[in-house]
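dumping this here so i dont lose it
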């Protein structure tokens, strides 16, 4: 029981963090970032830590971008079904 509660807490924290960095990622894209690595560099340059207080590698940007805070499920869609207004910075990396 305690483990389920802990996992739920960790997921909720990650979802909240993902929602909070979304505007920063969009801003980085508007400033010219076109790759996950460039977005990670922009987050690190601004001093934005990962949910575990670390530096941003490209894979963490991708994993965070795939989170859907309202449903706690990864975002796995075809590019034609992608909500570009909501997650525009991820569009080149969709499956």
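and the seq i came up w/
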């Amino acid at each position: 029981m305690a483990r389920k509660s802990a996992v739920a807490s960790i997921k909720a924290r990650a979802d909240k963090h993902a929602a909070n960095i979304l505007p920063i990622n969009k801003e980085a894209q508007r400033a010219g970032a076109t790759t996950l690595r460039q977005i990670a560099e922009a987050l690190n340059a601004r001093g934005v830590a990962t949910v575990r207080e670390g530096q941003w590698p490209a894979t963490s940007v991708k994993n965070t971008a795939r989170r859907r805070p309202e449903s706690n499920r990864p975002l796995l869609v075809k590019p034609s079904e992608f909500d570009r207004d909501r997650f525009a910075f991820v569009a080149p990396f969709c499956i």
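Strands lie at 67-68, 73-74.
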